[in-house]
């Protein structure tokens, strides 16, 4: 049986001397593992649409639950991103997070749209990488079911909390500390909190329609990174590599 999907290549793994396995995030089928026959050959017509972070259209042949690419064409390669190692490594981190959050044969159109929007922003929009990174991390956490409670101290209800509990995803005043939570707290300012609320609640088409800069942007990016990795209880080698490039 043949089926046609549009998807983003999240990972490419060598299968043998000629073939490779792709992890593809599609809109209708979620995450799929597909075989690309002959991809490792020098003149393979699959090279462009089957490379990491490529967005393409794939005609797949399915047999006993296994998918093989019959045809593929490129929809978007995000070429400016590929000419910048730092941006490329950040995009690869986004792909690794998306792979962790997605499931086989379970549609996740919101996650695919978020990944596409963030890759486009990296490649085409003149925005700070830290802002794009923060948007992807916090919004993907929300899509995974980890939407934080950002509306006042969860103990006293104060609208001017100074700390964010990474484990509980809750705000606290400096004078309030829940005895039930031993999680790590990070400081949060009014501008950072405003940006977090916007990212969590805004229309997906307006994810980058906010401004935050300087020290506040650095604090936002540090907090969203810490929150996502805490909730997922894991780190990401691609993130470590990206951060090594910034030193």
Features:
five-stranded mixed β-barrel; alpha+beta; 7 helices; 25% strand; 247 residues
Topology:
Elements: E1 2-14, E2 20-26, E3 30-36, E4 55-63, E5 66-76, H1 79-82, H2 85-101, H3 109-124, H4 129-143, E6 149-153, E7 163-165, E8 170-172, E9 185-187, H5 190-201, H6 214-232, H7 237-245
Parallel strand pairs: 3-5, 6-8
Antiparallel strand pairs: 1-2, 1-4, 2-3, 4-5, 7-8, 7-9
Helix pairs in contact: 2-3, 2-4, 2-7, 3-4, 4-6, 5-6
Instruction: Give the overall form.
Output: elongated
End-to-end distance, in Å?
50 Å
Strand order of the largest sheet: 1-2-3-5-4
Rg (C-alpha, Å): 20 Å
Walk me through what this model shows.
- The protein is an alpha+beta fold.
- It has seven helices and nine strands.
- The chain has helices at residues 79-82, 85-101, 109-124, 129-143, 190-201, 214-232, 237-245, and strands at residues 2-14, 20-26, 30-36, 55-63, 66-76, 149-153, 163-165, 170-172, 185-187.
- Strands 1-2-3-5-4 form a five-stranded mixed barrel.
- Helix 2 runs antiparallel to helix 3 (109-124) and helix 2 (85-101) runs antiparallel to helix 7 (237-245).
- The longest helix is centred in the C-terminal third of the chain and has 19 residues, at 214-232.
- The termini are far apart.
How would you briefly describe this protein structure?
This protein is α+β, with helices and mostly antiparallel strands. Helix content is 37%, strand content 25%.
């Amino acid at each position: 049986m043949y089926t046609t999907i549009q998807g983003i290549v999240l990972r490419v793994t060598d299968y043998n001397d000629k073939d490779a396995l792709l992890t593809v995030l599609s809109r209708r089928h979620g995450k799929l593992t597909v075989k690309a026959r002959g991809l490792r050959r020098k003149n393979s017509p699959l090279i462009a649409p089957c490379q990491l972070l490529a967005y393409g259209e794939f005609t797949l042949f399915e047999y006993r639950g296994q998918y093989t690419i019959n045809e593929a064409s490129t929809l978007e390669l995000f070429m400016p991103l590929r000419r910048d190692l730092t941006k490329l490594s950040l995009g690869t981190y986004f792909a690794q997070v998306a792979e962790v959050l997605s499931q086989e044969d379970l549609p996740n159109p919101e996650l695919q749209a978020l990944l596409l929007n963030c890759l486009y922003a990296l490649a085409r929009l003149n925005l700070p990488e830290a802002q794009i990174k923060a948007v992807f991390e916090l919004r993907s956490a929300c899509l995974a079911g980890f939407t934080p409670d950002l509306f006042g101290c969860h103990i006293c209800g104060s609208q001017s909390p100074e700390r964010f509990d990474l484990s509980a995803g809750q705000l606290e005043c400096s004078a309030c500390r829940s005895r039930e939570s031993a999680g790590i707290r990070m400081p949060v300012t009014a501008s950072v909190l405003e940006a977090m609320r916007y990212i969590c609640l805004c229309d997906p088409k307006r994810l980058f329609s906010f401004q935050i800069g300087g020290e506040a942007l650095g604090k936002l990016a540090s907090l969203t990174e810490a929150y996502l990795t805490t909730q997922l209880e894991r780190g990401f080698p691609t993130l470590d590599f990206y951060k090594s490039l910034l030193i």
